[in-house]
Amino acid sequence: MRSRSDSDQQGDAGAAYAYKASLIGAAQQFELGDDGLIWRIGPKAGVWPYATVAKVRLSYRPVSMQSRRYRADIEDVTGGRLRILSTTWQTVALMAPQDQAYREFVLDLHRRMRDAGSRAELIGGLPPAIHTAALVLIALVAVALTGLLARAVAVGSWSGALFLAGFALLFGWQVGGFIRRNRPRRYTFDDVPWDLLP
Question: 179-193: per-residue pLDDT in tens?
């Protein structure tokens, strides 16, 4: 759900973006104004000048109901934090993607921060400790699957071996993509990582 304020419609301000993080919660609204990032979450609202944004982290965060879900975590110099998701809740059973609106908003935010002389830390992917723990977990699962597959072949259980091979391929495709996209890295305003945008 993309929204625009009255001033937006008159061509006075920049891009606007809104999403619902939960079915019963209020929409979280963001706008890129001349003075900074304008945000409204329920009864709270504020403006963060672009030069005071201290950190932006982009990541790929799929969930069971939406495999193409991306997230931007933004922090200002006072320690305040905002989270912007590329999906929105519409009904009990539907979480809808907002790929184009999210991508345009995030890229425009980076452009405005750059033009304002921002010295924000730009980070892509998961924190290194979490990424390393995920790699270790994947390695353990791979060892376990290899052992089970070898056992199934040794006892001649071909259907079991086929099932394990199929599971391993699916697991590698799903989890491997998550780990690859979320590798820890730094980036610049002019080189926003495309694999962390829809």
Answer: 889 999 999 999 999
Whether residue 8 contacts residue 31, with contact meaning beta carbons closer than 8 Å, is answered with yes
Query: What is the torsional sign of CA 79, 50, 102, 25?
Result: positive
Q: What is the token pair recorded at 90? A: 């519409």
Give the helix ranges, DSSP H, for the chain: 6-9, 99-115, 128-154, 158-181
Instruction: State how far Cα 149 lies from the chain centre.
Output: 34
Distance CA 63, CA 67 (A): 6
Q: What pLDDT, on a 0 to 100 scale, did the predictor assign at position 38?
A: 96
Q: Measure the CA–CA gap between 20 and 2, rounded to whole angstroms.
A: 11
Q: At how many degrees (to 10) do helices 158-181 and 128-154 cross?
A: 170
Using the structure block, give the residue that is written with the tokens 């079915």: 23
Considering the entire predicted model, what is its pTM?
Answer: 0.78
